[in-house]
Specification:
The protein is an alpha/beta fold and 210 residues long. It has seven helices and seven strands. The chain folds into two domains: 2-108 and 157-206, Vaccinia Virus protein VP39 (Rossmann fold, 3-Layer(aba) Sandwich); 111-149, no CATH class. A seven-stranded mixed sheet has the order 3-2-1-4-5-7-6, with helices on both faces.
Length: 210
């Protein structure tokens, strides 16, 4: 498994907890994030690499060049659209036959009205979280911080429909949106095996438990 832009390892840990015999390679450009991932994944069969996948040639520094599963969580949306496309092509080449790529991502809303609905849902969730933590804040307080948060300018969002079309153009098969809640989406596709092995390249085959 390859976890791209792994952050503190929460997504990689979720996958490896379900498939404990798997090995993982986790990539992030932030050393503090990799340190946090190392702590979270203590005892797991993982390699953690400080790489910036925004730069061409990053994949040449990976310890292996084929992966059965590639995942990414809320990371690729920081890349310009042109780089998203080339990155998806690079990931396709890293997939083994029947390998699957899944991207849990922040995507663009089709309208300003849908964007406002997303923001409202997200802010309400943060209000509930703060209350559960015993540090309640009002909707207005959280909304004020949310709309001026520093990371907002770094978001380069693309519609999930466009990104799925990019995947199809590259050669991914069975491209689908598995889950979508306003601007939060899980989507991806597989690299089909050779014709003689057709029928085995399904997500179920990839994620069969040992």
């Amino acid at each position: 498994m390859l976890d791209l832009g792994c952050g503190d390892g929460v997504l990689g840990r979720a996958v490896l907890d379900q498939f404990p015999t798997a090995a993982g390679v986790l990539v992030d450009f932030s050393q503090p994030m990799l340190d946090a991932a190392q702590t979270r994944l203590a005892g797991q069969n993982v390699s953690l690499l400080a790489l910036d996948y925004g730069q061409l040639g990053w994949q040449e520094k990976l310890p292996v060049q084929q992966f059965d599963v590639i995942v990414s969580g809320f990371s690729i949306h920081h890349q310009p659209d042109a780089r998203k496309k080339t990155l998806y092509a690079e990931l396709f080449e890293l997939l083994s036959p029947s390998g699957i790529f899944l991207n849990l991502e922040h995507v663009a809303s089709p309208t300003r009205g849908r964007e406002a609905q997303h923001d409202d849902l997200f802010i309400e969730a943060m209000v509930a979280h703060q209350a559960n933590m015993g540090e309640p804040k009002s909707y207005a307080e959280i909304a004020a911080d949310y709309h001026v948060r520093p990371d907002k300018a770094a978001n380069i969002l693309a519609p999930v429909e466009a990104q799925c079309e990019w995947l199809r153009e590259i050669g991914y098969a069975q491209v689908a949106v598995y889950l979508k809640i306003f601007e939060l989406a899980l989507f991806g596709g597989i690299r089909e095996p050779d014709a003689e092995a057709s029928g085995t390249g399904t997500p179920a085959a990839i994620f069969r438990r040992s």
